[in-house]
Amino acid sequence: MDYQAPRGTQDILPEDQTCWRYVREKGEAIAQRYGYSRIDTPTFEDARLFTRTVGEETDIVTKEMYTFADRGGSDLTLRPEGTAPVCRAYIEHGMASRPRPVKLYYLASIFRYDRPQAGRYREHHQFGFELFGEADAAADAEVIEMAWRFYRELGLITLPVQINSIGCPECRSAYLSALKNYYATCLDTACSDCKTRYHKNPLRLLDCKKPDCRAAAVKAPHAVEYLCQDCKIHFDKLIAFLGAVEIPFEVNHRLVRGLDYYSRTVFEIQPAEEGAQSTIGGGGRYDSLIGQLGGEHTPAVGFATGIERIIINLKRQNVAVPGMPAPRFFIAWLGDAAGLAAFSLTAILRQAGINLIQSLSGRSLKAQLRQASSLGAEYALIIGDSELCKQEVVLRDLLRSTQRSLPLEGIVESLRSV
Ligand code: HAM
């Protein structure tokens, strides 16, 4: 065949939908329990929304965005992350006037022109949760607790949540100077990307994955040692709140995240079984973002998790995912007149809310019953000419191989009580 799904994208086949539905239902239940309302934003946005918020020097903006000019000449970008679009919608629809905090969640496809590999795709899907209008560290802790419980309720075992504070714009500048002073002494051994980061985005020096750079990062100064008084109080409170709800966490001084809009809290969660692309979810506080987009200053914190990565880990950790319910009944028939009656009976039963599959051709009864079993049906309803004459159907229990006749009159009630 000439066509295949584009590189880095995937078809989600019917057999994959069991896992998808499981994750979707758990995510929606958690969103409801923590008071989040669903929001859906467009698949594409004005390109500047992302270049200005995610950060001009980030990998997402420099290498990964799908940006195109539409026929009207506007520069548009396929959503490379979900937070900036939700902030845009928050401002555009005057949500600042709603009772605070405003809590919104989304389930959206995300596009990043990345090098595809296991767990890393060019189109993936995220469950995201954004909380607006609360500056207290209790909000950060509640978001982290919700993320951790989401994985726990899915049946996933995770490592302790990694947290860090990268401070506010004021105290960060002192930290960035310290970081640059430190890296100035070891820049000659750094990779070429890090040499650029040193000048353009020094925080990201800390999360380079190359071995020499990792070794250098181990001895780098810690952001938490440069926090101003308010940021330090915030971080200490976060730790106290996480302790109060017994969320296992550890401070990772090298955690900085790949998007530039964060301030103070950043966090990530990894599954217990490590592998490439192991982070399943991450987020943090982004108090300046709404103001940066032209809204009134609004503190905010959020989190997003990749559904594909969750599913990879459900499989790795052998989590038993409940299957899709099979149709209970299958209608088999023999002869043209019975076929017509079966077709009409199927319609009546479906309108009464009974799930069933009908045979669409008058093959041998054996072949029809084989089809019923392969679909996982519990019962077959069989109609032939003699049943039609007597105005009844045969109800065959496919597991026990027993059968009995049921009158057509009152069939809906009879099947409901089977
Ligand atoms: P992020 O860490 O870039 O954060 O993405 C969130 C999650 O999406 C990751 O932890 C990972 O599970 C998944 N993910 C990211 N890239 C890929 C990929 N190429 N293939 C498969 N899965 C991927 C954000 O996007 C922020 N907007 C999160 C946030 C929400 N911060 C505050 N609120």
From TrEMBL:
It is found in: Cytoplasm. InterPro entries: aa-tRNA-synth_II (IPR006195), aa-tRNA-synth_II/BPL/LPL (IPR045864), Anticodon-bd (IPR004154), Anticodon-bd_dom_sf (IPR036621), His-tRNA-ligase (IPR015807), HisRS-like_core (IPR041715), HisRS/HisZ (IPR004516), HisRS_anticodon (IPR033656). GO terms for molecular function: ATP binding; histidine-tRNA ligase activity. It catalyses: tRNA(His) + L-histidine + ATP = L-histidyl-tRNA(His) + AMP + diphosphate + H(+). Its EC number is 6.1.1.21. One of its GO terms (cellular component) is cytoplasm. Pfam families: HGTP_anticodon, tRNA-synt_His. Keywords: Aminoacyl-tRNA synthetase, ATP-binding, Cytoplasm, Ligase, Nucleotide-binding, Protein biosynthesis. The keyword Nucleotide-binding applies. Coiled coil: none annotated. One of its GO terms (biological process) is histidyl-tRNA aminoacylation. L-histidine binds at E81, G82, T83, R112, Q126, E130, R257, Y261, Y262. Residues 28-322 form the Aminoacyl-transfer RNA synthetases class-II family profile domain. Its main location: cytoplasm. Belongs to the class-II aminoacyl-tRNA synthetase family. Homodimer. This is Histidine--tRNA ligase. It comes from Dehalogenimonas sp. 4OHTPN.
